[in-house]
Amino acid sequence: MPRTGVRERRHTRLTTAGVLFVLAAVWYLGSEAIAAAAFAGYSYSHNYISDLGIPGLGTSGGRDIDSPLALVMNVGFVGHGILFVAAAYLLVTALPATRLRWVYFGFAVVHGVGITMVGIFPAALDASDTNGMVLHVIGAGMAIVGGNLAVITGGFIVLRRVVPPWVPSASVALGMTGLVCLAMLMLSQNAGSSILVAHGVWERGAVYTVQAWELLVAAVILVGAVRQSPAGASTSRSSRW
Prior knowledge:
Helix content is 68%, strand content 3%. It is mainly alpha-helical.
């Protein structure tokens, strides 16, 4: 009975983590889509995501800003950070202990704190005070770097023993893609012009890898949970959860 009880608690935590990962991705992408729809002339290719969170009218980096639903985007940033950290904690406490699992959780917290800062300290208009913008840029860096490192370590360290081999490989590929896109974005910004693709494309390539990983891991977790019998009688790979 005690072993069955532990298994059931782990199963509940794992499935809850899967649900929270789905909610995090949908919350973020949905908030972005809603805010973008209300922003006249907004371009997913040429505008930054943070443009959607700037309240007021004006310009930012020479781009016209008019985001009437800036609050929606900023709540999307903060909500994603909270959901991502909560899901990460449930994940590391549900699966068999590994010495390095808290490395993943640490990166998840860095991402969560960073993206929360992005929402609390929106990007500034050109004529605005830059103090908040400094915190915004720091938060964005934490969110992107921490998020992609969480993707890599989450798949390769935390999930490696309990999922099909392609999941850790896909996690590493996603995280590395995000970091490469961030590097290309920084190179483009320093060059003062787009390299290969517009700035917004590089930024989204650095950000969307986190949401893609959330949905990937959630699908693997939830499909595995459905296949596992309530009594834990399944002998499939997913029963290791």
